[in-house]
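Reopening: C-alpha coordinates for the nicotinamide-adenine-dinucleotide complex, inputs below.
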Amino acid sequence: MSNDADHGSVDSTVNESPAEPETALETALRQLDRAATLADVDEDIVERLRHPARVTRVTLPLKRDDGRVDPIVGYRAQHDSVRGPFKGGIRYHPDVTEEECIGLGMWMTWKCAVLNLPFGGAKGGVVVNPKKLSLKEKERLTRRLAQELRDVVGPNRDIPAPDMGTDAQTMAWFMDAYSMQEGETTPGVVTGKPPAIGGSVGRAEAPGYSVAIITELAADYYDIDLNGMTVAVQGFGSVGANAARKLQDMGATIVSVSDVNGAVYNPDGIDTHNILSHEEKPEAVLEYDAPSIISNDELLELDVDVLIPAAIGNVITVDNVDEIKADMIVEGANGPTTSGADVALEERDIPVIPDIVANAGGVTVSYFEWLQDISRRKWTLERVETELESEMAKAWASVVDVHEDRSVTWRDAAYTVALERVAAAHNIRGLWP
Ligand code: NAD
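Re-run output (same inputs, fresh job):
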Protein backbone atom coordinates (compact mmCIF):
# COMPACT_ATOMS: atom_id res chain seq x y z
CA MET A 1 0.00 0.00 0.00
CA SER A 2 1.36 3.40 -0.88
CA ASN A 3 -0.53 5.68 1.46
CA ASP A 4 1.95 5.48 4.28
CA ALA A 5 3.30 9.00 3.98
CA ASP A 6 3.69 11.13 7.08
CA HIS A 7 0.15 12.48 7.48
CA GLY A 8 0.74 14.57 10.62
CA SER A 9 -1.98 15.50 13.09
CA VAL A 10 -5.50 16.29 11.96
CA ASP A 11 -5.40 20.02 12.59
CA SER A 12 -2.05 20.79 10.96
CA THR A 13 -1.90 23.43 8.19
CA VAL A 14 -5.28 22.38 6.83
CA ASN A 15 -6.27 25.87 5.85
CA GLU A 16 -3.15 26.71 3.85
CA SER A 17 -3.25 26.71 0.06
CA PRO A 18 -1.39 23.60 -1.10
CA ALA A 19 1.02 23.42 -4.01
CA GLU A 20 -0.72 22.56 -7.28
CA PRO A 21 -1.38 20.14 -8.79
CA GLU A 22 -2.49 17.93 -5.90
CA THR A 23 -3.02 14.21 -6.39
CA ALA A 24 -6.48 12.78 -5.72
CA LEU A 25 -5.17 11.21 -2.52
CA GLU A 26 -3.58 14.45 -1.30
CA THR A 27 -6.85 16.29 -1.94
CA ALA A 28 -8.91 13.60 -0.21
CA LEU A 29 -6.63 13.60 2.86
CA ARG A 30 -6.62 17.40 3.03
CA GLN A 31 -10.43 17.48 2.89
CA LEU A 32 -10.69 14.80 5.57
CA ASP A 33 -8.29 16.69 7.82
CA ARG A 34 -10.21 19.89 7.33
CA ALA A 35 -13.55 18.24 8.10
CA ALA A 36 -11.98 16.60 11.17
CA THR A 37 -11.24 20.03 12.64
CA LEU A 38 -14.93 21.00 12.22
CA ALA A 39 -16.68 17.77 13.15
CA ASP A 40 -17.00 16.31 16.58
CA VAL A 41 -15.31 12.96 15.96
CA ASP A 42 -12.84 10.66 17.68
CA GLU A 43 -9.25 11.15 16.44
CA ASP A 44 -8.67 7.37 16.26
CA ILE A 45 -11.57 7.07 13.85
CA VAL A 46 -10.20 9.91 11.71
CA GLU A 47 -6.80 8.20 11.67
CA ARG A 48 -8.45 4.94 10.53
CA LEU A 49 -10.28 6.84 7.77
CA ARG A 50 -6.99 8.26 6.46
CA HIS A 51 -6.24 4.73 5.17
CA PRO A 52 -8.12 2.30 2.95
CA ALA A 53 -9.53 -0.83 4.60
CA ARG A 54 -7.97 -2.94 1.82
CA VAL A 55 -6.35 -2.57 -1.59
CA THR A 56 -6.37 -5.52 -3.96
CA ARG A 57 -3.77 -5.49 -6.73
CA VAL A 58 -4.25 -7.90 -9.61
CA THR A 59 -2.32 -8.81 -12.73
CA LEU A 60 -4.55 -9.61 -15.68
CA PRO A 61 -2.93 -11.64 -18.47
CA LEU A 62 -4.64 -10.08 -21.47
CA LYS A 63 -4.59 -12.17 -24.63
CA ARG A 64 -4.37 -9.71 -27.51
CA ASP A 65 -6.12 -10.36 -30.81
CA ASP A 66 -2.71 -11.15 -32.40
CA GLY A 67 -2.05 -13.88 -29.82
CA ARG A 68 0.45 -11.97 -27.61
CA VAL A 69 -0.24 -11.92 -23.86
CA ASP A 70 0.21 -8.62 -21.97
CA PRO A 71 0.22 -8.47 -18.16
CA ILE A 72 -2.17 -5.63 -17.22
CA VAL A 73 -2.28 -4.27 -13.67
CA GLY A 74 -5.52 -3.43 -11.88
CA TYR A 75 -6.51 -2.22 -8.42
CA ARG A 76 -9.57 -2.20 -6.22
CA ALA A 77 -9.18 0.20 -3.29
CA GLN A 78 -11.85 -0.35 -0.65
CA HIS A 79 -11.85 2.60 1.71
CA ASP A 80 -14.62 2.05 4.24
CA SER A 81 -17.68 -0.17 4.61
CA VAL A 82 -18.96 0.70 8.07
CA ARG A 83 -22.34 1.88 6.70
CA GLY A 84 -22.78 -0.85 4.07
CA PRO A 85 -21.06 -2.56 1.12
CA PHE A 86 -18.23 -0.71 -0.63
CA LYS A 87 -19.44 1.19 -3.69
CA GLY A 88 -17.60 2.92 -6.52
CA GLY A 89 -16.61 2.84 -10.16
CA ILE A 90 -13.93 0.97 -12.08
CA ARG A 91 -11.95 3.04 -14.57
CA TYR A 92 -9.78 1.92 -17.48
CA HIS A 93 -7.11 4.56 -18.07
CA PRO A 94 -3.35 4.49 -18.76
CA ASP A 95 -2.63 6.89 -15.86
CA VAL A 96 -4.46 4.88 -13.15
CA THR A 97 -2.42 4.49 -9.96
CA GLU A 98 -3.02 2.77 -6.65
CA GLU A 99 -2.89 6.15 -4.89
CA GLU A 100 -5.51 7.61 -7.21
CA CYS A 101 -7.85 4.67 -6.54
CA ILE A 102 -7.42 5.17 -2.78
CA GLY A 103 -8.16 8.91 -2.98
CA LEU A 104 -11.19 8.43 -5.24
CA GLY A 105 -12.42 5.60 -2.98
CA MET A 106 -12.38 8.01 -0.02
CA TRP A 107 -14.48 10.47 -2.02
CA MET A 108 -17.04 7.72 -2.59
CA THR A 109 -17.27 7.11 1.17
CA TRP A 110 -18.19 10.77 1.71
CA LYS A 111 -20.51 10.95 -1.30
CA CYS A 112 -22.52 7.92 -0.14
CA ALA A 113 -22.59 9.20 3.44
CA VAL A 114 -23.76 12.71 2.58
CA LEU A 115 -26.62 11.16 0.58
CA ASN A 116 -27.23 8.83 3.54
CA LEU A 117 -26.98 5.76 1.27
CA PRO A 118 -26.22 2.45 3.02
CA PHE A 119 -22.89 2.10 1.21
CA GLY A 120 -19.23 2.73 1.85
CA GLY A 121 -16.63 3.90 -0.67
CA ALA A 122 -14.29 2.18 -3.12
CA LYS A 123 -12.68 2.76 -6.51
CA GLY A 124 -11.05 0.46 -8.98
CA GLY A 125 -8.78 1.04 -11.90
CA VAL A 126 -7.02 -0.87 -14.64
CA VAL A 127 -3.83 0.58 -16.11
CA VAL A 128 -4.74 0.36 -19.77
CA ASN A 129 -5.72 2.66 -22.62
CA PRO A 130 -9.26 1.50 -23.50
CA LYS A 131 -9.07 3.30 -26.87
CA LYS A 132 -6.31 0.88 -27.86
CA LEU A 133 -8.34 -2.24 -27.00
CA SER A 134 -10.54 -4.06 -29.48
CA LEU A 135 -14.03 -4.90 -28.23
CA LYS A 136 -13.01 -8.53 -27.78
CA GLU A 137 -9.85 -7.56 -25.86
CA LYS A 138 -11.90 -5.31 -23.59
CA GLU A 139 -14.36 -8.14 -22.97
CA ARG A 140 -11.58 -10.64 -22.12
CA LEU A 141 -9.91 -8.11 -19.82
CA THR A 142 -13.17 -7.37 -18.00
CA ARG A 143 -14.12 -11.02 -17.54
CA ARG A 144 -10.66 -11.78 -16.13
CA LEU A 145 -10.95 -8.76 -13.81
CA ALA A 146 -14.27 -10.09 -12.50
CA GLN A 147 -12.59 -13.45 -11.85
CA GLU A 148 -9.62 -11.88 -10.03
CA LEU A 149 -11.85 -9.66 -7.88
CA ARG A 150 -14.40 -12.38 -7.21
CA ASP A 151 -13.52 -12.78 -3.54
CA VAL A 152 -13.71 -9.08 -2.71
CA VAL A 153 -16.80 -7.97 -4.68
CA GLY A 154 -20.44 -9.05 -4.44
CA PRO A 155 -23.87 -7.49 -3.88
CA ASN A 156 -23.27 -7.42 -0.11
CA ARG A 157 -19.51 -6.76 -0.24
CA ASP A 158 -18.50 -4.31 -2.94
CA ILE A 159 -20.54 -3.13 -5.91
CA PRO A 160 -18.57 -1.65 -8.84
CA ALA A 161 -20.03 0.73 -11.46
CA PRO A 162 -18.82 2.35 -14.70
CA ASP A 163 -16.28 5.18 -14.62
CA MET A 164 -13.82 6.67 -17.13
CA GLY A 165 -13.25 4.23 -20.00
CA THR A 166 -15.89 1.74 -18.86
CA ASP A 167 -19.61 1.68 -19.62
CA ALA A 168 -22.85 -0.30 -19.35
CA GLN A 169 -21.48 -3.03 -21.65
CA THR A 170 -18.39 -3.40 -19.43
CA MET A 171 -20.67 -3.86 -16.42
CA ALA A 172 -22.71 -6.46 -18.34
CA TRP A 173 -19.55 -8.55 -19.00
CA PHE A 174 -18.46 -8.17 -15.38
CA MET A 175 -21.88 -9.21 -14.10
CA ASP A 176 -22.03 -12.16 -16.53
CA ALA A 177 -18.55 -13.44 -15.56
CA TYR A 178 -19.29 -13.08 -11.85
CA SER A 179 -22.68 -14.81 -12.23
CA MET A 180 -21.12 -17.73 -14.14
CA GLN A 181 -18.54 -18.21 -11.40
CA GLU A 182 -21.19 -18.05 -8.68
CA GLY A 183 -23.53 -20.36 -10.54
CA GLU A 184 -26.44 -17.94 -10.24
CA THR A 185 -27.48 -14.72 -11.98
CA THR A 186 -26.37 -11.93 -9.66
CA PRO A 187 -27.35 -8.56 -11.14
CA GLY A 188 -26.68 -6.72 -7.84
CA VAL A 189 -22.90 -7.22 -8.12
CA VAL A 190 -22.57 -4.09 -10.29
CA THR A 191 -24.67 -1.05 -11.15
CA GLY A 192 -24.83 1.02 -14.32
CA LYS A 193 -25.84 -2.09 -16.29
CA PRO A 194 -28.05 -2.03 -19.39
CA PRO A 195 -31.77 -2.11 -18.35
CA ALA A 196 -32.22 -5.49 -20.12
CA ILE A 197 -30.18 -7.22 -17.39
CA GLY A 198 -31.27 -5.27 -14.31
CA GLY A 199 -30.02 -1.74 -14.99
CA SER A 200 -32.25 1.12 -13.86
CA VAL A 201 -34.05 3.52 -16.12
CA GLY A 202 -32.82 7.07 -15.48
CA ARG A 203 -29.33 5.97 -14.33
CA ALA A 204 -27.45 7.60 -17.22
CA GLU A 205 -29.16 10.97 -16.77
CA ALA A 206 -29.00 10.94 -12.96
CA PRO A 207 -25.68 12.76 -12.24
CA GLY A 208 -26.69 15.61 -14.56
CA TYR A 209 -30.22 15.73 -13.15
CA SER A 210 -28.89 15.91 -9.62
CA VAL A 211 -26.64 18.83 -10.62
CA ALA A 212 -29.77 20.61 -11.91
CA ILE A 213 -31.80 19.76 -8.79
CA ILE A 214 -29.05 21.03 -6.47
CA THR A 215 -28.57 24.17 -8.61
CA GLU A 216 -32.28 24.88 -8.24
CA LEU A 217 -32.13 24.39 -4.45
CA ALA A 218 -29.00 26.55 -4.14
CA ALA A 219 -30.50 29.28 -6.34
CA ASP A 220 -33.57 29.26 -4.12
CA TYR A 221 -31.33 29.55 -1.04
CA TYR A 222 -29.66 32.67 -2.49
CA ASP A 223 -32.96 34.12 -3.80
CA ILE A 224 -31.84 33.81 -7.42
CA ASP A 225 -34.87 33.49 -9.71
CA LEU A 226 -34.47 30.35 -11.80
CA ASN A 227 -36.41 32.04 -14.59
CA GLY A 228 -33.77 33.74 -16.69
CA MET A 229 -30.91 32.74 -14.37
CA THR A 230 -27.80 32.66 -16.57
CA VAL A 231 -25.73 29.48 -16.59
CA ALA A 232 -22.48 28.40 -18.27
CA VAL A 233 -21.70 24.68 -18.43
CA GLN A 234 -18.25 23.28 -19.21
CA GLY A 235 -18.44 19.80 -20.77
CA PHE A 236 -21.42 18.46 -22.69
CA GLY A 237 -21.28 14.79 -21.73
CA SER A 238 -23.36 12.64 -19.44
CA VAL A 239 -23.21 15.20 -16.63
CA GLY A 240 -23.01 18.54 -18.50
CA ALA A 241 -25.60 17.87 -21.21
CA ASN A 242 -28.19 16.43 -18.83
CA ALA A 243 -27.67 19.26 -16.32
CA ALA A 244 -27.87 21.96 -19.01
CA ARG A 245 -31.00 20.52 -20.64
CA LYS A 246 -32.79 20.03 -17.33
CA LEU A 247 -31.95 23.56 -16.17
CA GLN A 248 -33.12 24.98 -19.50
CA ASP A 249 -36.40 23.08 -19.06
CA MET A 250 -36.70 24.57 -15.56
CA GLY A 251 -36.50 28.10 -17.04
CA ALA A 252 -32.80 28.96 -16.78
CA THR A 253 -30.97 30.67 -19.65
CA ILE A 254 -27.99 28.56 -20.70
CA VAL A 255 -25.59 31.08 -22.26
CA SER A 256 -22.64 28.79 -22.98
CA VAL A 257 -21.76 25.08 -23.19
CA SER A 258 -18.52 23.46 -24.33
CA ASP A 259 -16.71 20.30 -25.25
CA VAL A 260 -12.97 19.70 -25.40
CA ASN A 261 -12.69 21.80 -28.59
CA GLY A 262 -14.31 25.01 -27.31
CA ALA A 263 -17.59 26.63 -26.33
CA VAL A 264 -20.65 28.11 -28.02
CA TYR A 265 -21.87 31.38 -26.49
CA ASN A 266 -25.03 33.42 -26.80
CA PRO A 267 -25.90 35.89 -24.01
CA ASP A 268 -29.59 35.51 -24.96
CA GLY A 269 -29.50 31.74 -24.44
CA ILE A 270 -28.83 28.64 -26.49
CA ASP A 271 -31.11 25.65 -27.09
CA THR A 272 -29.24 22.80 -25.45
CA HIS A 273 -31.70 20.24 -26.83
CA ASN A 274 -30.38 21.08 -30.30
CA ILE A 275 -26.76 20.37 -29.40
CA LEU A 276 -25.54 16.79 -29.62
CA SER A 277 -24.24 15.45 -26.32
CA HIS A 278 -20.95 13.54 -26.06
CA GLU A 279 -22.90 10.27 -26.10
CA GLU A 280 -25.03 11.26 -29.12
CA LYS A 281 -22.01 12.45 -31.16
CA PRO A 282 -18.64 13.08 -29.49
CA GLU A 283 -17.19 16.60 -29.68
CA ALA A 284 -20.05 18.08 -31.77
CA VAL A 285 -20.83 21.16 -29.65
CA LEU A 286 -19.19 23.58 -32.11
CA GLU A 287 -21.55 22.35 -34.86
CA TYR A 288 -24.30 24.37 -33.16
CA ASP A 289 -25.01 27.68 -34.87
CA ALA A 290 -24.21 30.23 -32.13
CA PRO A 291 -23.25 33.90 -32.53
CA SER A 292 -19.87 33.37 -30.84
CA ILE A 293 -17.35 30.62 -30.28
CA ILE A 294 -15.19 31.08 -27.20
CA SER A 295 -12.51 29.00 -25.50
CA ASN A 296 -13.02 26.80 -22.46
CA ASP A 297 -10.94 29.27 -20.43
CA GLU A 298 -13.24 32.12 -21.51
CA LEU A 299 -16.32 30.07 -20.59
CA LEU A 300 -15.02 29.68 -17.04
CA GLU A 301 -14.59 33.45 -16.78
CA LEU A 302 -18.06 34.46 -18.03
CA ASP A 303 -20.11 36.84 -15.89
CA VAL A 304 -23.00 34.45 -15.16
CA ASP A 305 -25.24 33.64 -12.22
CA VAL A 306 -24.08 30.01 -12.11
CA LEU A 307 -20.96 28.30 -13.47
CA ILE A 308 -21.10 24.51 -13.76
CA PRO A 309 -17.73 22.88 -14.50
CA ALA A 310 -18.85 19.42 -15.69
CA ALA A 311 -15.95 18.11 -17.79
CA ILE A 312 -12.74 17.27 -15.95
CA GLY A 313 -10.95 17.95 -12.65
CA ASN A 314 -8.65 20.86 -11.70
CA VAL A 315 -10.03 23.51 -14.08
CA ILE A 316 -10.54 26.27 -11.49
CA THR A 317 -7.05 26.83 -10.11
CA VAL A 318 -4.99 29.54 -8.42
CA ASP A 319 -4.06 30.72 -11.93
CA ASN A 320 -7.58 31.62 -13.11
CA VAL A 321 -9.57 31.97 -9.89
CA ASP A 322 -9.23 35.77 -9.81
CA GLU A 323 -10.90 35.93 -13.25
CA ILE A 324 -13.97 33.92 -12.17
CA LYS A 325 -17.02 36.23 -12.31
CA ALA A 326 -19.85 33.77 -11.64
CA ASP A 327 -21.97 34.42 -8.54
CA MET A 328 -22.07 30.72 -7.69
CA ILE A 329 -20.27 27.54 -8.76
CA VAL A 330 -21.95 24.14 -8.79
CA GLU A 331 -19.45 21.31 -9.31
CA GLY A 332 -20.68 18.82 -11.91
CA ALA A 333 -17.31 17.15 -12.51
CA ASN A 334 -15.37 15.46 -9.73
CA GLY A 335 -12.76 17.80 -8.25
CA PRO A 336 -12.97 20.73 -10.71
CA THR A 337 -11.81 23.25 -8.07
CA THR A 338 -8.31 22.92 -6.61
CA SER A 339 -7.86 23.44 -2.86
CA GLY A 340 -5.96 26.68 -3.53
CA ALA A 341 -8.76 28.06 -5.70
CA ASP A 342 -11.28 26.98 -3.07
CA VAL A 343 -9.58 29.18 -0.47
CA ALA A 344 -9.61 32.17 -2.87
CA LEU A 345 -13.30 31.66 -3.71
CA GLU A 346 -14.15 31.49 -0.01
CA GLU A 347 -12.33 34.81 0.55
CA ARG A 348 -14.36 36.33 -2.28
CA ASP A 349 -17.62 34.93 -0.85
CA ILE A 350 -18.39 32.97 -4.01
CA PRO A 351 -20.32 29.87 -2.92
CA VAL A 352 -19.07 26.55 -4.29
CA ILE A 353 -21.57 23.70 -4.07
CA PRO A 354 -19.35 20.63 -3.91
CA ASP A 355 -19.24 17.63 -6.24
CA ILE A 356 -19.97 15.12 -3.48
CA VAL A 357 -23.46 16.60 -3.19
CA ALA A 358 -24.15 18.02 -6.66
CA ASN A 359 -23.30 15.03 -8.87
CA ALA A 360 -24.30 12.35 -6.33
CA GLY A 361 -27.43 11.54 -8.34
CA GLY A 362 -25.36 8.90 -10.15
CA VAL A 363 -24.60 6.84 -7.08
CA THR A 364 -28.08 7.50 -5.71
CA VAL A 365 -29.74 5.94 -8.76
CA SER A 366 -27.11 3.18 -8.56
CA TYR A 367 -28.52 2.53 -5.09
CA PHE A 368 -32.03 2.41 -6.62
CA GLU A 369 -30.69 -0.03 -9.23
CA TRP A 370 -29.22 -2.25 -6.51
CA LEU A 371 -32.55 -2.17 -4.63
CA GLN A 372 -34.36 -3.21 -7.83
CA ASP A 373 -31.83 -6.01 -8.41
CA ILE A 374 -32.00 -7.54 -4.95
CA SER A 375 -35.80 -7.22 -4.75
CA ARG A 376 -36.24 -8.36 -8.39
CA ARG A 377 -38.69 -5.53 -9.01
CA LYS A 378 -38.42 -2.78 -11.65
CA TRP A 379 -39.14 0.87 -10.90
CA THR A 380 -40.70 3.27 -13.40
CA LEU A 381 -38.81 6.35 -14.58
CA GLU A 382 -41.31 8.48 -12.72
CA ARG A 383 -40.51 6.69 -9.46
CA VAL A 384 -36.75 6.95 -10.04
CA GLU A 385 -37.01 10.70 -10.67
CA THR A 386 -39.36 11.37 -7.75
CA GLU A 387 -37.17 9.43 -5.32
CA LEU A 388 -34.01 11.07 -6.69
CA GLU A 389 -35.49 14.54 -6.09
CA SER A 390 -36.49 13.51 -2.59
CA GLU A 391 -33.03 12.08 -1.70
CA MET A 392 -31.26 15.15 -3.11
CA ALA A 393 -33.53 17.49 -1.15
CA LYS A 394 -32.84 15.56 2.10
CA ALA A 395 -29.08 15.69 1.53
CA TRP A 396 -29.27 19.40 0.73
CA ALA A 397 -31.26 20.09 3.90
CA SER A 398 -28.66 18.36 6.10
CA VAL A 399 -25.84 20.31 4.42
CA VAL A 400 -27.76 23.59 4.85
CA ASP A 401 -28.10 22.89 8.58
CA VAL A 402 -24.35 22.54 9.09
CA HIS A 403 -23.55 25.44 6.72
CA GLU A 404 -25.73 27.71 8.82
CA ASP A 405 -25.14 26.32 12.33
CA ARG A 406 -21.35 26.29 12.05
CA SER A 407 -20.88 29.12 9.51
CA VAL A 408 -18.73 26.99 7.22
CA THR A 409 -18.45 26.72 3.43
CA TRP A 410 -20.71 24.38 1.50
CA ARG A 411 -17.81 21.97 0.95
CA ASP A 412 -16.89 21.91 4.62
CA ALA A 413 -20.55 21.46 5.54
CA ALA A 414 -20.93 18.49 3.18
CA TYR A 415 -17.73 16.82 4.42
CA THR A 416 -18.75 17.43 8.02
CA VAL A 417 -22.16 15.80 7.48
CA ALA A 418 -20.47 12.83 5.80
CA LEU A 419 -17.66 12.43 8.32
CA GLU A 420 -20.00 12.63 11.30
CA ARG A 421 -22.26 9.94 9.81
CA VAL A 422 -19.34 7.60 9.06
CA ALA A 423 -17.70 8.29 12.43
CA ALA A 424 -20.97 7.70 14.30
CA ALA A 425 -21.24 4.26 12.70
CA HIS A 426 -17.60 3.43 13.58
CA ASN A 427 -18.13 4.70 17.09
CA ILE A 428 -21.17 2.55 17.76
CA ARG A 429 -19.77 -0.56 16.04
CA GLY A 430 -16.32 -0.05 17.60
CA LEU A 431 -12.96 -0.08 15.82
CA TRP A 432 -12.21 -3.63 17.14
CA PRO A 433 -8.50 -2.95 17.58
P1 NAD B 1 -18.35 12.43 -20.69
O1 NAD B 1 -17.18 11.70 -21.25
O2 NAD B 1 -19.72 11.94 -20.98
O3 NAD B 1 -18.26 13.96 -21.20
C1 NAD B 1 -17.17 14.78 -20.94
C2 NAD B 1 -17.36 16.10 -21.66
O4 NAD B 1 -16.27 16.97 -21.30
C3 NAD B 1 -17.30 15.99 -23.19
O5 NAD B 1 -18.19 16.95 -23.75
C4 NAD B 1 -15.86 16.36 -23.51
O6 NAD B 1 -15.68 16.89 -24.83
C5 NAD B 1 -15.60 17.41 -22.47
N1 NAD B 1 -14.17 17.57 -22.17
C6 NAD B 1 -13.22 16.62 -22.06
N2 NAD B 1 -12.03 17.17 -21.78
C7 NAD B 1 -12.24 18.50 -21.70
C8 NAD B 1 -11.40 19.60 -21.46
N3 NAD B 1 -10.07 19.43 -21.26
N4 NAD B 1 -11.95 20.84 -21.45
C9 NAD B 1 -13.27 21.00 -21.67
N5 NAD B 1 -14.11 19.99 -21.92
C10 NAD B 1 -13.60 18.76 -21.94
O7 NAD B 1 -18.06 12.56 -19.13
P2 NAD B 1 -19.13 12.64 -17.94
O8 NAD B 1 -19.58 11.26 -17.60
O9 NAD B 1 -20.16 13.70 -18.24
O10 NAD B 1 -18.19 13.10 -16.72
C11 NAD B 1 -17.79 14.45 -16.56
C12 NAD B 1 -17.27 14.65 -15.16
O11 NAD B 1 -18.28 14.30 -14.21
C13 NAD B 1 -16.06 13.79 -14.76
O12 NAD B 1 -15.29 14.52 -13.83
C14 NAD B 1 -16.69 12.60 -14.08
O13 NAD B 1 -15.77 11.98 -13.17
C15 NAD B 1 -17.81 13.29 -13.33
N6 NAD B 1 -18.92 12.41 -12.95
C16 NAD B 1 -19.52 11.57 -13.85
C17 NAD B 1 -20.57 10.77 -13.43
C18 NAD B 1 -21.27 9.84 -14.39
O14 NAD B 1 -21.95 8.93 -13.91
N7 NAD B 1 -21.17 10.05 -15.70
C19 NAD B 1 -21.00 10.80 -12.10
C20 NAD B 1 -20.39 11.68 -11.21
C21 NAD B 1 -19.34 12.48 -11.65
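The domain at 206-337 is CATH 3.40.50.720 (Rossmann fold). Residues 1-15 have pLDDT under 50 and may be disordered. Marking as resolved unless the reporter disagrees.
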